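Hey, I'm writing a tutorial for new members on how sequence and structure tokens pair up, and I'd like a real worked example in the thread rather than a made-up one. If someone can provide the structure for the chain below, I'll link this post from the tutorial.
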Amino acid sequence: MASKTFAVLGDPIGHSLSPVIHEAAYKVLGLDWNYEAIQVSEGGLRSFLESSTIDGFSVTMPLKVEAASLAAKTDANVILTGVSNTLVRNTDGFAAFNTDIFGMSKALEAVLKNKVEVVALIGAGATAKSAMVAVAKNKPSCLFDIYVRDETRAEDLLDLAGDLGVFTSVHPLNEFSNFQELTINTLPQGASSTLPVSKQDGYLLNVNYAGSDHELVASFDSQRVIKGQTMLVWQALQQIRLFSGLNLNEELPNEDLVVKAMFEALNN
């Protein structure tokens, strides 16, 4: 397959592990592809895309809503959430996809086989929307307790909950409690420091993998903490399928080996 270039876009972007895991996958697949990290500030995505010749992008904070709005074509999950973390160049511009939902679903696969009646969703941004969809598809009758810094920012998430038909309750961060079976933290680096900390019996998916959430993570049994890197690998897998010209659910050659290499790259 011809040489191509891909990149992850966001701000900040220096902490991103996406280049490491994508390059590991390309090596297993025998692809002469390049992948880099590029800082693009909020509001600057349109002008960047218009001047770029890169073949496709992973999109992270704070550009996921902007990415969805700029695409010529969107998949069903982008239409549902208004959020895109993947852009693939085509003849008409870009096609937008949301692979975060798949990443969340795979990361939580074992947890969601258990009883989950209450989910604490910390944050109400783009990633929180994907988290809500991933859980609601498996546990449509659960209650989402949404914890936010500013309750007005939860309006889009509440609209999504209405579309999904799930129950919600909105709370300020200082009301975060310990009676939920699953907590999903989508706050950016360091923002969880304002949460009250108490012993937690449930599971935690900590989407932020850049650190600074030590107190929150330490309040959970270490065996019940799912790192953000797990979601990162699985959402990247679907991105690589798309970059390869496959559909979202069409497996790559030697996909088991690809996934193994991606996880191993995080530990090197």
